[in-house]
Design a protein that fits this description.
By secondary structure, the chain is of the alpha+beta class. The strands form 2 sheets. Strands 2-1-8-7 form a 4-stranded antiparallel beta sheet, with no helix packed on it. The longest helix has 28 residues. The chain is elongated, with a radius of gyration of 23 Å. The chain contains 1 helix and 8 strands. The protein has one domain.
Length: about 150
């Protein structure tokens, strides 16, 4: 009887330690992220015509995607982020869509990797298109910055 009790205690201890280890591994794999996206429309002479900014902070874990629908009654706007944990790195993927005007929208995807053991990684980018066709002539610039921390 004593051997059965001892075996049960060992099995219970292993189960509890395994659960705690799994929770610790999941907490360690979580990423705290922040994103900023800025859209600016400037006239040919440099006068700012329109601006829009998006900022958010969020936490990612494998299998737990983040989604923010920041649409208005007349414009569709969506930001999503996900994380895949591989054997050597975590890969963060973001998608951004913003219906900024009747004729234009901003739509981009990006991906960033954090090596295991790496505390912080940042990624940024910019894109501009220009048109000389009135009444929409100007320079349309979108910039973004993403930072994730373990």
């Amino acid at each position: 009887m004593m051997a059965t009790s001892r075996f049960f205690a060992i099995a219970l201890n292993a189960l509890l330690m395994g659960s705690a280890g799994l929770a610790a591994a999941q907490a360690q794999s979580a990423l705290s992220c922040s994103v900023t996206v800025d859209y600016v429309l400037t006239a040919q002479d440099g006068t700012v015509i329109d601006t829009e900014s998006y900022q958010n902070m969020f936490v990612l874990q494998p299998g737990a995607d983040f989604e923010d629908d920041f649409s208005t009654p007349t414009r569709f706007k969506l930001f999503t982020a996900s994380m895949q944990q591989g054997p050597n790195r975590a890969v963060v993927t973001i998608s951004y869509f913003n219906d900024v005007s009747t004729f234009n929208s901003v739509d981009f995807d990006s991906q960033m990797s954090l090596l295991n053991g790496q505390a912080t990684e940042s990624l940024s980018g910019a894109q501009t298109f220009s048109t000389s066709t009135a009444p929409l002539s100007g320079h349309y610039t979108t910039t973004y910055a993403l930072t994730c921390r373990r």
